[in-house]
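To whoever is on call:

I kicked off a structure prediction for a single chain this morning and the downstream step that reads the tokens threw a length-mismatch warning. I double-checked the sequence; it's 260 residues and nothing unusual in it as far as I can see. Pasting both halves so you can look.
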Amino acid sequence: MKITILGARGSMPTDGKEMLEYGGATSCVLVETKKDAIILDAGSGIQRVPKMPDKSLAILFSHMHVDHLVGLPFLPSLSEKGRRIDFYGESRFGFTLQEQLKKLFSPPFWPLPLEDYPSDAVFHDLEGPFSIGEIDVTFMGSNHPGGGTIFKLEHEGHSLVYATDYEHDSRCDGKLIEFAKDTDLLFYDAQYTEEEFAKRRGFGHSTVAMGLKIMEECGAKNLRFVHHDPRHTDEMLREMEEKVASDNIAFAREGEEILL
């Protein structure tokens, strides 16, 4: 699998010269094999997804908060006539995935209904393990206000776990550790410093320290911290990263490519 980080910022997109190193686009990760492409979340980074006419295309939604949806109307493939795009996500608050997305793609939030785009959208409400081409997908619930989904993608003996928008808690950490056991790559939410977390407990985000603990206990080979706080500048993120960085631990940066 080839993994490209297209957006690693949390809560809202940012810009400015002090936000260039790690990037300001919100959550979006592209996973590719020779035949298939999977997009994890539709944050503002999704506008950089290239056209891939020879690959199947699917989008997996961790949840429907705005920062994870804001880029979806600008996905280039939506405007490709006859292009099939498979959407996967959990039903929430009594609404199917299609009904949730319909709320975004309707006035007064957006002028064009999703069904009016030239592409062909196919919706899948998550019920159990499934496959997208040669990629096997499993999932578990996340500890996040309103709910969330943590995904594991496996292909040819390698795996990645996408655990953004997750707040560490002794009641659920064990489940994540077991779910992510021996994964090759763990994406983990580390939006807050320890001081910020103490003031924002219950907001649904985590810290570097807990990410390191979960990495150690699950045996993950590599760790990328994601969902950078919009108030954290490159200087702040660099200082946080320097304390823990190694050959296999880093803060996610827009444009980084990882091969598994």
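Update from on-call: the warning came from a stale cache, not from the record. Cleared it. Sanity check on the structure: Residues 2-259 form a domain with the Metallo-beta-lactamase; Chain A fold (CATH 3.60.15.10).
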